[in-house]
Design brief:
The chain has 289 residues and is α+β, with helices and mostly antiparallel strands. Helices cover 34% and strands 24% of the residues. It has 3 domains: 5-49, Uridine Diphospho-n-acetylenolpyruvylglucosamine Reductase, domain 2 (2-Layer Sandwich); 59-168, Uridine Diphospho-n-acetylenolpyruvylglucosamine Reductase, domain 3, CATH 3.30.465.10; 175-287, CO dehydrogenase flavoprotein, C-terminal domain (Enolase-like, domain 1), CATH 3.30.390. The structure holds flavin-adenine dinucleotide.
């Protein structure tokens, strides 16, 4: 039996004090960290359970910015009318996570800080151009989500710091948003590959803004600058979607693992990118007045 300290802070102040302790490690929903802890793949000597900290579980829009607290669960995202109306791809991504129990307990913060290349919320939030708000005893800082991950299991969080929330601007105008995930089966499957797209059309129907994000296709979730450059200012058609999907391959570095080969992931990337672009474009076209 391993010895460890357990803390359950109730306020941000108590949380920051606990995080200053040697070997401190945050536990939110515990769906990822507790199985790893049990398998002794984690060396933390001090578990800081943040589930009772007030003010970290909310989804709101204030002064034109949508903010989601780190303790919001996947189930919260799915049930939120604000997310359903303004960022439905995020609800869709949350709905694709694990099983009911995982979605009830697993949090947005845990999904992002876990830094898995396969984290389902990551491509959706990258497509929304979200930022992460990090808090420590000394300061608060905002990091674009695209710069939040350093590699598998690694983020820019420093010791004593935690993820408080993520923010993004609500999509505006003739926009379309889409998320697609390929797993080995339809439920309870970690992504073999995933993609999320955000397109805004100008008044002539050309693509004004394009964001394309990919999951499980590189050491960390990432956007595809090559595809985005190709799409921006272009007129959408199936050939453009095909070219953009080929361009996205420049930005990925898939690996062979237990779920799929790198070659299969490349094929999956192409199919998923074409699918999300088509869906996002059709939605945007429907909003063009
Ligand atoms: C059966 C099963 C199926 C799953 N299926 C999927 C799936 O389909 N898609 C998917 O994306 N994930 C999946 N997961 C992984 C996991 O459940 C989710 O990523 C979940 O969102 C993690 O959230 P959590 O609150 O449980 O994280 P925890 O396990 O509590 O924490 C995960 C990591 O994040 C850190 N952390 C958590 N919150 C914060 C914070 N606010 N600030 C700083 N550090 C923090 C912890 O220290 C830990 O390192 C699955 C897990 C299980 C067990």
């Amino acid at each position: 039996m391993r010895e460890f300290e357990y803390y359950q802070p109730k306020t941000n102040g108590e949380l920051l004090a606990a995080l200053a302790l040697d070997g401190a490690r945050v536990v939110a929903g515990g769906t990822d960290i507790i199985p790893r802890w049990r398998k002794e793949r984690l060396s933390a000597t001090c578990l800081v359970d943040i589930s009772a900290v007030g003010g970290l579980r909310f989804i709101r829009e204030e002064e034109g910015v949508i903010e989601i607290g780190a303790l919001s669960t996947h189930a919260d995202l799915i049930a939120s009318p604000l997310i359903q109306n303004k960022a439905p791809l995020l609800a869709q991504a949350a709905a694709s996570v694990g099983c009911t129990q995982t979605r009830q307990r697993g949090t947005l913060g845990g999904n992002l800080v876990n830094a898995s290349p396969a984290a389902d919320l990551a491509p959706a939030l990258l497509a929304l151009n979200a930022s992460a708000w990090l808090m420590s005893a000394e300061s608060e800082r905002c990091v674009p989500l695209a710069e939040f991950w350093l590699g598998p299991g690694k983020t820019v969080l420093t010791p004593g710091e935690f993820l408080r929330s993520v923010t993004f601007l609500p999509p505006q105008g003739a926009c379309g948003l889409a998320f697609a995930k390929l797993g080995k089966r339809s439920g309870m499957a970690i992504a073999v590959a995933s993609a999320a797209a955000y397109l805004v059309l100008d008044e002539r129907g050309n693509i004004h803004t394009a964001r394309l994000a990919l999951g499980s296709l590189a050491p960390m979730p990432k956007r595809s600058p090559a595809a985005e450059t190709l799409l921006t200012t272009a007129a959408y058609d199936e050939m453009l979607a095909d070219r953009a999907a080929s361009a996205a391959l420049i930005d990925i570095s898939p690996i062979d693992d237990v779920r799929a080969s790198a070659a299969y992931r490349r094929l999956a990337c192409k199919v998923l990118v074409e699918r999300v672009l088509k869906e996002a474009y059709n939605q945007a076209l429907g909003r063009l007045s």
